[in-house]
Amino acid sequence: MENYFKEIEKKLKKEIKFEKLKIINNSHKHKGHQFFSEDKYHLHLKIESVFLRSITRLSAQKLIMNVLKDDLKQKIHALEISIE
Description:
By secondary structure, the protein is an alpha+beta fold. The protein has a single domain, classed as BolA-like (GMP Synthetase, Chain A, domain 3, 2-Layer Sandwich). It contains 4 helices and 3 strands. The protein has helices at about 1-15, 50-55, 55-65, 70-75, and strands spanning about 20-25, 40-50, 75-84. A 3-stranded mixed sheet has the order 1-2-3. It starts with a helix and ends with a strand.
């Protein structure tokens, strides 16, 4: 799991300028939900970024989702994004 989170950080760093990233795994909060799968993560990304704050919230979220599009199909079930 740690390696996977480092992989996410690397992908985001390659495409987006940010100062700090914190990845929180909230998967345990969703056990028992209808579509819960042990193979997919429920993540919360907390990103400190002057760049992302300089564009619209929607544009920033689209940019992040585009970078992680393959992960969203295969490894991430839910993604919460906080831009600080």
